[in-house]
Every structure is written in structure tokens, then in C-alpha cells.
Design goal:
With 856 residues, the chain is α/β, with parallel strands linked by helices. 43% of the residues lie in helices and 10% in strands.
């Protein structure tokens, strides 16, 4: 008997061919049963990536002719090197195929072993394919499945033989995948066929690696009651829909995998992904990163659009002309109203306190951790073999991005000390500042006023490094930004807005950027500050960037906005919160409307990728907003607005600005705030709703429901373990390895090398310490590096070169191990696990909807 079974991605469909007198095609779940049909037809609601073309010539009365069609299909499967996998109960597994010829009693023992409902698939074939030759077997290999070092030399040779076999197999699979991608993901006109009658397209999911999977059966015997599961699933889907709405509104990214599941439950759902001009094959891509050989500041200036821009209740509106202003008819740019935002914020906060939801999410997170441990236990050797089979690529020469870095502290303390000493020797007579009486002072006079010389300076005297005294003392940490405890030195060396227009700060950052360019594989996203005290801050920052040529192909900038309105108000710098918003956003709208109004800013904005919100999150505040909260024009209190208030008005204005800039073909901005380092968990709820990705996220470990939502939405989290170790959380308690194991999108970043690092390569220092303390494997490290590139704001063409031309695709189709050094096994495991979790949740919601329909 001939048997061919398939497990598809979404619809859990199987077909079986029995050759004798009749042909029977059985599609489980959503598909139909067909007998003696000549065409394999797609069900309207199924998602079958394969079909048989030109099958009408087959004789419906002759089963052998029909079997010939399916033999052609199997030949394609065999060429795609799929391996063996049991059907299982996993409803969303990537396509796998089984082919076996049954005799009376043969192959009876080839089934996958099952223990307490957990089937470990692929074990038999792995042992059969990769076991050493019979001559090299150990004497105890048959009696015990473990190794006893009776003969150490033979033991080592046995292991090396297995590794060579695994590496050669991985190399063969890699070459086949390369040839597949070089043809654009499809077979050629003469490939895998005997004649012109049968041609098949290879789906992008075909090259799924063979590895040992763990599937759980018996979903109907779950300890949680059906009502609790339905309630939890409904809450989770509602929260995901809220985030998707805010991301679509602000033109930020949302994972396509989750969006497809939302589409399955929302009839009126439409989500447009960011469209890129992709090059379809690897052959179309250059070997090196696209570089800008021309002047990076040479940018076109379009004429003024003559739009009228004015704030309304804290959010800038765009009007066509004066008549539209009088009629109060602004352009229809969508943004969330304050009342809607408060309602959604309170709704998600109430979800986080729901008992059944917390229990459900906690169990799912524990399951994800355990599943990852089993995956590592079963497939670690295969992942390592896949990495060894890739030439030239290892952890040192894959792209890494420091996704959370402050420009004022982007250098280490020794670098700053060398720069200060060199500047004193070469430019001691340069006028750098004014004293309290307004008298001009040279650099030499500044140090003479402190009774210091270049010879006296040491790293210890600078006193910029965080120590045990900064733990839970954010005020002391901020004081570390002042070298030798002198704010005057910070103003001279670490500010862009000073008497010398940020000259020294520009030189230091350029030296750091040069080090990154020399390393080639390290990149950074430093934060530059806009305080919102005056309207001309943007012009000064942009003039600094253009004058000192702050462009680097390894650097993209974010703008951080400190939440310091209470200080400005108490010092009578600002009158109300609306003035703060005007200083931050009005120049951006003006330069978008008329580039000639701020020419340097128009040039500099092309290298700004997003906005950050920074300050001490542990300050006491009321985390929730009331519906009667004051609008910005009426906020005249010296009390600082809460975190959620800052986030809303930043997000709303960015949303309108993004719509205006995208209409004009300009780059848009994302929102990536500091979130969840300390303070209440409501900060993380704001981040879930408004931010494309966040920095820190430590408090997620205390809110399982919110952590599970961050996993389902694949929200990036830039974590800084060394920074947290000095400020809020000891290193061994950091949740980064737990987040990584569960499948959250996390990256390692440095935060402040000036305060926390010692070496010239602070990002590599972070990776090396993490690898030692948490025993991260090479695959783990490369996965973290890949995540850092994915969540970064570098251009799409850069990411295509760093990760592969198809990196935006889901699952294994989006991975290129020759560039990321992340094995397809790990990518497939992550993707299949996410699909399984989303499937379980949305199936529960579907059941609720169907039951409610039947009740009425």
C-alpha cells in the first residue's frame, strides 16, 4: 500500500492515497473528501500551498494513472529534503510529509515514541540517519542509550564522526536552499518533472528543516475550565486588536503573523503592511551594504505647501487654508482621541487584574519555557552542526545593533579621559564657556579654576562610573554625567548646545562611529536630547549635525524627550504643557510644510528614525488618567504630568506628523520609549498600546498577562543587563534569558557605556558577560543579534543585506543562515510555537462566537 500524508500550515489538512481499485483523497477539518477525482481542488477556506496542474489528462477510471500524478508530487517532496514527521495534533505546523511502503510486519517499530501524551517526532529517523557506522559502535551502545567512556579515544572519534555527518547534512540542505532562493523561490521550467503535463510550484515554506518536535495532545482534557479559557482568549484578542489599531493609525509595524489571525475573526479587518521594493533573489543583491557615495546632506528641497498648522487640544492639526481654519475642517489624518485612549488604557489595565486571565497566561508562559528547554535538549547538536556548515559566518561577523544607547554617554570612561587630555594639550587656548559673571573662559582657564592639569586627570578622578551607591538612587546616577562632579565640564564636553556649538561632543561621537565602522559588524542608535524649553532647540541640533558631519552608515539617531516639565515650570521657563509640546513638535511640522524654513533640520531629519521618552520611572505619580483630565493649555500645575499623559500627546502628534510626511514621500518616525524599568506596570500598558518597541521592560516579569501579550504581538524589548544591575535589578535576577527562552523579541544593548562598561567595544562586553553568566549558546547569541537588527530603525535595504533579501517573510522563508548564522531549526521552532499559541487563542474565540450564534 502507498501512503502519502501532509500536515499544512493553517488548516490542518491531510490527504491519503490508497492504490488498488479506488483513489480516496481525504481532507480533514476544513476540506472535503473526494473519490476518483482528477483534480486536487482547494477548499474555499483552506490554505493549501500546493496544487496539481494539467491533471485533466489522467484517466479517472484508471487508478494507476492517478497514482502516477501523486508519485510526481512525492518526487517533489523527496527532492525538497523534508524528513519525517508524524501528523500529531498541532494545528498549525509548517508543511511536513510522510512516505512509507508497508509490508506485513515491517516498520512496525518506526512510530515516534510517546510519553504521557507527549510525542517526540523525528527520533527514529534521526537515529537511523545520523548514528555512527556499525564498526564504530561502542560496546555499551545497544544496552544503554548513554555513553560510558570505556575507551576515551574511540569515544571522541565517535562524537567527531557524528558531528561531521551532521555538518555535511546541514551543508547539503544549505546548498539546496541557496539554489532554491537563487531561482526566486520557484522551480525552473524543466525541474522535477518527466514531461510537460505536470508542473508544481515550490511554496516558500517548503524548506522547513527536519528536527525533533514536541507536540501536546489531549487539549480537551485541560485543567482550566472552558469558560475561563474563553474569557482569557477574548481578552487577549481584544487587546491585540487595540494594539493593531494604534500601530496602523501611526504607520508603525505590526507582525504579519498576528495580523492574519486577527483577520480571521474580523470581517472588516484591513491591514496594509509597509511596502518595500524588494529584490527577489539573492543574486540581485550586492555583496556589500549599499553606501551613499554622494554627500549625505545633499537632499532635494520641494516648494512650500502653504499649509496652516496649529494645535487643537494638544494635537497639531493641518489645514489647507484660512477658510478651512475658520470652518474648523482640518485634514482627515486619523489619530486617537484622548477619551478613546483613556478608555482603551483602562480596559487593558482591568484585563491585567483578571484572575482567570493571569492564571491562563502564567501557565502558557511556563509551557513556553519548558518547551524551549526540551527543544534545546533534543536539537542543540543539530543547531550547532547547521552553524558549522556555514562558511565565513560566526557570531563575530554577523550584524549587531546597539538598540538603546545615549549619545552623551556613548563612549567608555577611558575614551573620554583620553579625549579630554588630548584637547587640553592641543586646544587649551580655545574659548569654551562663560563663568557665572559672563566672562569668557578658555579651556585652560576652566581647568585652572579647578586646580587641575592634564597630568592630574585619571579615570578615578573623573568619577563617571556607576557603583554600588547608585543602586535605586537615580539622582546619584544622573550626577555621574558630570565629570569630576563639575557640571561645567559636562556642558563643555557632553552637550551639543553650548558656547562652542557642541564641537567636542561631535568629535567624540565621530570617534565612536569610526570605531563602529572599523568593526564593520557593529551598529548603534544613539539618543540625542530635545528638552522642549525653547523653540530653536531643533535648529541648533540640526546645525550641529550638519556642521560636524555627524553622518555614519553605522549610526542612526533617535531623539529623546526628557519628562521634566515640572522643573521648567518651577523655574518659570514654561507657562503650560502646551508650550512644551509646541517647542517639541511645531518645528517638525513647519519644516515638513516648508523645508526652506529650517534647511538644516530638513537635512538632518532623514537620519532620525524615532522618538524616545526618558526619565526616572520610579517617581511617584497617578498612573491612570481620568476623563476630566486637563488639556495641555490648562495644565499649569507645577506637578509633573503622569507617564501616560506624556505618552499620549507624543504619540498623537507623531501620528499626525507621520501622515503628513508620508504623503510628501518623506521618512516617518517610530515611538520607542523607556518603559518598564521601574514604577507601575501601567507604563508597560502604555508601551503595549503606543510603542513599536520599548527599552528595559523589566516589570513584565511581574505581570504574566502583559508579558504574554508582548509575546503574541512580538514587541521588541531592548534590554541592558549591566545598566539594570547598577540601578534597579541584580544581574542574576534579570529576566532576559527567561524572555528569550519564551520567545519574546529581545535584544542586548548598552544604555550608557560611560557609566557601565570598561572596554572599547561595550556591546561585545554585554554579549560576553551575558554568555558567561547565563551560559548562552552560539545560537542564542546569534538570535539576539538578529532580533537587534529586526527591531532597529536602519533602512530596509540595509536589513536585506544583513539578514537576507526575504527577511520580511514569516518563518524559515525569511531566514538566511549565511547572513544571520541562526539555524533554520531555531527559526522554525519559534515560528511554529507562535503559530500554535495564536491558534489556540483564536480557536477559543471562534468557539465562543459560534456558540453565541447558536444561542440566538
Amino acid at each position: 500500500m502507498f501512503d502519502l500524508a501532509t500536515d499544512y500550515v493553517v488548516s490542518r489538512n491531510y490527504f491519503v492515497l490508497h492504490g488498488s481499485a479506488h483513489l480516496r483523497i481525504r481532507f480533514a477539518a476544513n476540506c472535503m473528501i473526494v473519490q476518483n477525482e482528477t483534480v486536487l481542488r482547494d477548499h474555499a477556506k483552506s490554505n493549501i500551498p500546493m496544487r496539481i496542474a494539467n491533471a485533466d489528462s489522467a484517466d479517472s477510471d484508471n487508478p494507476c494513472s492517478l497514482i502516477k500524478v501523486f508519485l510526481k508530487l512525492f518526487k517533489l517532496f523527496e527532492m525538497s529534503q523534508r524528513g519525517v514527521i508524524s501528523g500529531g495534533n498541532s494545528s498549525n505546523r509548517t508543511p511536513r510529509f510522510i512516505y512509507s511502503t508497508f509490508k506485513d510486519s515491517e516498520d512496525a517499530g518506526d512510530e515516534s515514541p510517546t510519553f504521557n501524551g507527549i510525542s517526540v517526532t523525528g527520533v527514529g529517523s534521526s537515529l537511523k540517519s545520523y548514528s555512527p557506522s556499525q564498526d564504530g559502535d561502542l560496546p555499551n551502545q545497544l544496552s544503554a542509550p548513554y555513553e560510558v567512556p570505556h575507551f576515551p579515544i574511540e569515544q571522541i572519534e565517535n562524537k567527531l564522526l557524528m558531528q561531521r555527518q551532521l555538518s555535511s547534512k546541514a551543508l547539503k540542505d544549505l546548498e539546496e536552499k541557496r539554489s532554491h532562493l537563487s531561482m526566486g523561490g520557484r522551480t525552473g521550467p524543466n525541474s522535477i518533472r518527466d514531461d510537460q503535463d505536470y508542473r508544481f510550484n515550490i511554496d516558500e515554506h517548503d524548506y522547513v528543516p527536519h528536527f525533533q518536535r514536541v507536540s501536546i495532545s489531549g487539549e480537551d482534557t485541560c485543567q482550566t475550565t472552558a469558560d475561563d479559557i474563553h474569557r482569557a482568549a477574548s481578552f487577549l484578542v481584544e487587546a491585540l486588536c487595540i494594539r493593531e489599531r494604534y500601530m496602523r493609525m501611526s504607520q508603525q509595524s505590526f507582525p504579519t503573523t498576528t495580523s492574519r489571525f486577527i483577520h480571521s475573526v474580523e470581517d472588516n479587518y484591513t491591514y496594509h503592511n509597509i511596502v518595500h521594493e524588494d529584490k527577489k533573489t539573492i543574486a540581485d543583491h550586492p555583496i556589500h551594504v549599499p553606501t551613499n557615495d554622494e554627500n549625505p546632506w545633499d537632499i532635494d528641497f520641494y516648494p512650500s505647501k502653504n499649509l496652516i498648522i496649529k494645535p487643537v487640544n494638544g494635537v497639531f492639526q493641518v489645514y489647507e487654508n484660512e477658510e478651512a481654519v475658520k470652518e474648523n475642517k482640518p485634514r482627515d489624518y486619523p489619530y486617537p482621541l484622548l477619551e478613546t485612549y483613556i478608555s482603551d488604557l483602562n480596559k487593558i489595565c482591568m484585563m491585567m487584574a483578571d484572575g482567570p486571565l493571569k492564571s491562563f497566561c502564567f501557565k502558557r508562559l511556563c509551557y513556553l519555557s519548558s518547551k524551549y528547554q526540551l527543544h534545546v535538549l533534543l536539537n542543540e547538536v543539530h543547531e550547532l552542526a547547521a552553524q558549522k556548515a556555514v562558511p565565513h559566518r560566526d557570531f563575530y561577523n554577523i550584524r549587531k545593533v546597539d538598540t538603546h544607547l545615549h549619545a552623551a554617554s556613548c563612549m567608555n570612561q577611558k575614551h573620554l579621559l583620553r579625549f579630554i587630555k588630548k584637547t587640553i594639550r592641543t586646544q587649551e587656548n580655545e574659548i569654551v564657556t562663560r563663568d557665572k559673571n559672563g566672562k569668557l573662559m578658555t579651556l585652560k582657564e576652566v581647568f585652572e579654576s579647578m586646580n587641575l592639569t592634564a597630568y592630574d586627570l585619571t579615570v578615578d578622578m573623573l568619577d563617571v562610573h556607576a557603583d554600588r551607591n547608585t543602586f535605586h538612587r537615580f539622582d546619584k546616577f544622573n550626577a555621574k554625567y558630570n565629570p569630576i562632579g563639575e557640571s561645567r565640564l559636562r556642558e563643555v564636553f557632553l552637550k551639543t548646545d553650548n558656547y562652542i556649538r557642541g564641537k567636542y561632543m561631535g568629535h567624540i561621537i565621530k570617534e565612536v562611529a569610526f570605531d563602529l565602522e572599523e568593526s564593520k559588524y557593529q551598529n548603534a542608535e544613539p539618543r540625542l536630547s530635545i528638552y522642549g524649553k525653547t523653540m530653536d532647540e531643533w535648529d541648533k541640533l540640526a546645525k550641529w549635525g550638519v556642521e560636524y558631519n555627524m553622518y555614519s552608515s553605522n549610526v542612526r539617531y533617535l531623539v529623546q524627550i526628557p519628562r521634566l516639565f515640572d522643573i521648567y515650570k518651577s523655574n518659570k521657563i514654561l507657562i503650560n504643557f502646551q508650550q512644551f509640546l509646541n517647542n517639541v513638535f511645531q518645528p517638525l511640522f513647519e519644516v515638513t510644510n516648508d523645508p526652506s524654513s529650517h534647511p538644516e533640520l530638513h537635512k538632518f531629519l532623514q537620519f532620525i528614525i524615532g522618538f524616545d521618552s526618558v526619565d526616572d520611572e520610579s517617581k511617584p505619580e497617578n498612573p491612570l488618567l481620568d476623563r476630566d483630565v486637563s488639556v495641555p493649555e490648562e495644565w499649569t500645575d507645577e506637578e509633573n504630568p503622569p507617564y501616560s499623559y506624556y505618552q499620549y500627546y507624543t504619540f498623537a502628534n507623531l501620528t499626525v506628523l507621520n501622515h503628513l510626511r508620508s504623503e510628501l514621500g518623506l521618512n516617518t518616525f517610530v515611538f520607542r520609549p523607556h518603559c518598564g524599568e521601574a514604577g507601575p506596570y501601567q507604563h508597560l500598558v502604555c508601551g503595549f498600546m503606543l510603542a513599536e518597541n520599548i527599552s528595559h521592560g523589566l516589570l513584565l516579569r511581574k505581570v504574566p498577562a502583559l508579558q504574554y501579550l508582548y509575546y503574541l504581538a512580538q514587541i521588541g524589548i531592548a534590554m541592558s543587563p549591566l545598566s539594570n544591575n547598577s540601578l534597579f535589578l541584580n544581574y542574576y535576577r534579570n529576566p532576559l534569558p527567561e524572555y528569550l527562552a519564551r520567545g519574546l523579541v529581545v535584544s542586548i544593548s548598552t544604555d550608557d557605556p560611560l557609566q557601565f562598561h570598561f572596554t572599547k567595544e561595550p556591546l561585545m562586553e554585554e554579549y560576553s558577560i551575558a554568555a558567561q553568566v547565563w551560559k548562552l549558546s552560539s545560537c542564542d547569541m546569534c538570535e539576539l543579534a538578529r532580533y537587534s537588527v529586526l527591531m532597529s530603525g536602519f533602512p530596509h535595504r540595509y536589513k536585506q543585506h544583513w539578514l537576507g533579501p526575504n527577511y520580511t517573510k514569516e518563518g524559515v522563508a525569511g531566514n538566511d543562515i549565511t547572513r544571520t548564522n541562526v539555524p533554520d531549526i531555531r527559526i522554525a521552532f519559534r515560528y511554529e510555537t507562535l503559530i500554535e499559541e495564536l491558534s489556540n487563542i483564536f480557536k477559543a474565540v471562534d468557539r465562543v462566537e459560534k456558540e453565541s450564534v447558536l444561542m440566538f
